[in-house]
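Hey, can you fold this?
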Amino acid sequence: MRRTYTFYPGCTLHSTGREYGRSTAAVCAALGIELFELPDWNCCGASSAHSLDAELAAALPTRNVLLAQEAGRDIAIACAACYGRLAAAHARLRDDASFRDRMERVVGRRFIGDVRPRSLLEMIVGDGGTLEIAGRVRRPLAGLRPVSYYGCLLLRPPQTAGLWDDTEHPKKLDGLLRALGANPCAWSYATDCCGASMTLNRSDIVYTLVGRLLAGARDAGANCIVTACPLCQANLDTRQGRQERGMAIFYFTELLGLALGLDELRSEWGRHFTDPRPTLAEAGLL
């Protein structure tokens, strides 16, 4: 049975995170998931709008939620920041009558409440299940020793974004990686911040945070890091210092596509700043 969702790509999946967008489309098609891109979607405001204008920061994700109601399908969201913003807006629309009335006037649409924002990772793992995915694996990822990295936005705040996994000790991404044949390593940094929102104005802090994550991954015995956030992927991929260089940073959809045998996605590996192909070759996956 095919599953259908409204798809919110956010500002990165058609641009700097194109490999995430392409791998998302490919693996969803292979798993029988139909994605309909939200017409006339707008930027969610991410981590910057709230520092400029509180009303704008609320209205941007709210408009996307209200637009998505027209199709009556849950909203699949690939970016952790976008998911957090839309999930928070949906919760306030549902629970706060004053906020709902104000946003309905600003956006010019009424809140019906029959769709909900969903993390792409939660949707793929939760709705289909890892057993179904394991049955479709064509190339087991036995040579990979990843650590699962959620970052600080995918499960926070727990009242809105973190309803689908343990917010302190998340397990869903490890479960997916095991279903793909990989051997995920245990570590203590799965939900630590990488500093993505400070990447332009405080790169010194970002290098420190990224360095801590990369060192933690190496100490855990990992040969790659897997994430579900384009901000985290870009930060970890490009901010590797001399001592940490060479750690492959994958989107979870890229490894899912590799395990499913979607060889057309190989061309996107060259878009990574830190080339992941040596890691894949060493693991016998090229």
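Oh, and this one too while you're at it.
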Amino acid sequence: MLIIGEKINSSIPSVGPAIANKDKAFIQKLAADQAEAGADFIDVNAGAFVQEEAELLPWLVEIVQEAVDRPLCIDSPNPAALANALAVSRKKAIVNSISLEKDRYESIIPLIQKSGSSIIALCMDGRGIPATAEQRFEIARTLVERLTGDGIAAEDIYIDAMAQPIGTDSNSGRVTLNTVAAVRQGLPGVHITCGLSNVSFGLPKRRLLNQSFAVSLAVSGMDAFFIDPLDERLMSLLRSTEAILGEDKYCRKFIKASRVGKLV
């Protein structure tokens, strides 16, 4: 399982002011804490600062790279901000994101081709997010066909199954799970992810819901988790689920995590 640490995001109340004030120490500690907790990639997002994003996003990339030896997930819909950030990225990044929306696809794909980055591809088009897993799978299939046709390898594509709040649609969690299962079966070679914590938006005990959803997603076939790696219980559940699913040979990673006190 691949863990993408989601904490350096300008929409988080404690993080937005740190980005605005260019509080390097705060951001670097947050990056280091996520890496120590087990994040394979560190997400960087300055999207709340629309006018300054093209300046702030590459700044985030540079200071996070100073603090941790991890590749980054560079998170923006703004092609100019992405171009600036990719220009200073030292390792192969994941770009978040592209979709079947015409303008978005055509503005982002040249950046992916030029940089050799991986790409998160959203199961949505110009009409929005489909209501059914079948419709989302068809968009995923079309995206994979287009992206591979444009020279992007299947293993560099991360399909986003588009988790939505269950507080406003009780069926949305099941739709996401069914989308993951369909992509895993029907589109071999690609990765699958989603903004997991969206499922609990507006509800109490969000961590509990996120933890339950993470295990369900793993069993359905998701292999790239966009999560808070500082949630020790969530990370423990994912490590144990990975072992149960036979994805941790001889449970080596589980045993190692136990020995260093990372299972709760």
